Amino acid sequence: MSKLQLAEDVKPLSEFRSGVASCIRQVRKTKRPVVITHHGKSAAVLLDIAHYETLMERIETLQDIRLGEHQLSEGKGLRHDNALEQVLKRVRA
Fold first, then answer.
1. Pairing mode, if any, of strands 10-12 and 34-38?
2. Number of separate helices (H) and strands (E) present in the chain
3. How confident is the model at residue 1 (pLDDT cuts 50, 70, 90)?
4. Percentage, residues of the chain above pLDDT 90
5. Would the pLDDT of 62 be above 90?
6. Which residues contact 11 (CB under 8 A, 6 or more apart)?
7. Which residue of 22, 46, 52, 64 shows the fewest CB atoms closer than 10 Å?
């Protein structure tokens, strides 16, 4: 995702409402999010769908890592050779 450019990528809600299609084109073209403000405060972010999907995948990966670290800290981990043996048993069955 490209770096946000404040002069171009922050839009008040009124401008967003009157030019939704233009904002979508801008996001697709620049690959930068558009921040939508309401009463002078940030309220929402418009993202390109590919960037949104990438962010969701990264979040899921980080959650999986965190879960794995938690399981390891509770002693629920397996040595590599034991894990490999279990996987091979399942594949052969």
1. parallel
2. 5, 3
3. confident
4. 86
5. yes
6. 23, 34, 35, 36, 37
7. 64
- What is the rounded CA–CA span in Å between residue 14 and residue 78? 56
Domain boundaries defined on the chain: 6-47, 51-92
CATH, range 6-47: 3.40.1620.10
77: Cβ contacts below 8 Å, ≥ 6 apart:
71
User: Which residue is associated with the tokens 């940030």?
Assistant: 42
Residues 4-36 pLDDT 10s: 888 899 999 999 999 999 999 999 999 999 999
**Which one, of 7, 73, 60, 70, lies nearest residue 34 by Cα?**
7
